[in-house]
Write a structure and sequence with these properties.
Keywords: Membrane, Transmembrane, Transmembrane helix. It holds the Pfam family ECH_1. There is one protein chain. The chain is α/β, with parallel strands linked by helices and 226 residues long. 56% of the residues lie in helices and 11% in strands. It is built from eleven helices and seven strands. It has a four-stranded parallel beta sheet, with helices on both faces. The chain is globular, with a radius of gyration of 18 Å.
Length: 226
């Protein structure tokens, strides 16, 4: 998260007109690494939970306030925070093999990435609850139908399709940034408040011993499944 935030900080002040967020390989994002989180929380849960909360909050807030357009190309799975931040971006393209899942309750966590606000607004409350509470695994076409993804392309030609459709390189930077600002103007305060609430709940989950037990059980189940 800190590395992505650092890259965005550089892009915010250079002469680029937009950011293309993509990956090398077949996985877009597997979400937070709970093996690492458990290791941090083992020694000083209170201090570690505050640090983790601040990291996530700052990461998400940077997407909220980032002025340049963010285009996302999703290949393969986008899980947890990797899926929940997508509505904070401006255009999301996916290949046919992409899928999206936010199975927070399965590993004893609460939603993040402002998804408690963005998902119900985009896909309706019922579908949002299926994603955030029930952990519905949504394929690329379903994500497009629900408004989480802009367009879906064939895997074989995905990169070419993305590059062809990036037509804003010739646009005026002032026009791009102000067009985005107009679209986001009425939402930013609400998104920041949602991010604050979500991170506060995560901190409350991580701080007590019971929160650790849920995560340890999830990590152990992953090991057993492997």
């Amino acid at each position: 998260m800190n590395e992505v935030k650092s890259a965005l900080e550089i892009a915010a002040v250079d002469d680029s007109k937009f950011v293309l967020l993509s990956v090398v390989g077949s996985v877009f994002c597997c979400g937070l690494d709970f093996d690492i989180i458990v290791k941090h929380l083992k020694y000083n849960r209170k201090r570690a939970s505050v640090k983790l909360e601040d990291t996530i909050k700052n990461f998400v807030n940077f997407f909220i306030v980032f002025m340049k357009p963010v285009i996302v190309s999703v290949k393969g799975p986008a899980i947890g925070l990797g899926a929940s931040i997508l509505p904070l971006c401006d255009v999301v393209w996916a290949n046919e093999k992409a899928w999206f899942q936010t199975p927070y309750t399965r590993f004893g966590q609460s939603p993040d990435g402002c998804s408690t606000i963005t998902f119900p607004k985009i896909m309706g409350r019922a579908a949002a609850n299926e994603m955030l509470i029930n952990g519905w695994k949504m394929n690329a076409q379903e994500a497009c139908d629900k408004g989480l993804v802009s367009q879906v392309f064939w895997s074989e030609t995905f990169t070419q399709e993305v590059m062809v459709r990036i037509q804003i390189t010739s646009c005026n930077s002032f026009v791009l940034e102000n067009s985005k600002a107009l679209v986001c103007y009425n939402m930013n305060v609400e998104l920041k408040q949602a991010n604050e609430r979500e991170c506060e709940v995560l901190k409350k989950i991580w701080a007590p011993a019971q929160g650790m037990e849920y995560m340890l059980k999830y990590v152990q189940n992953k090991i057993d499944a492997f």
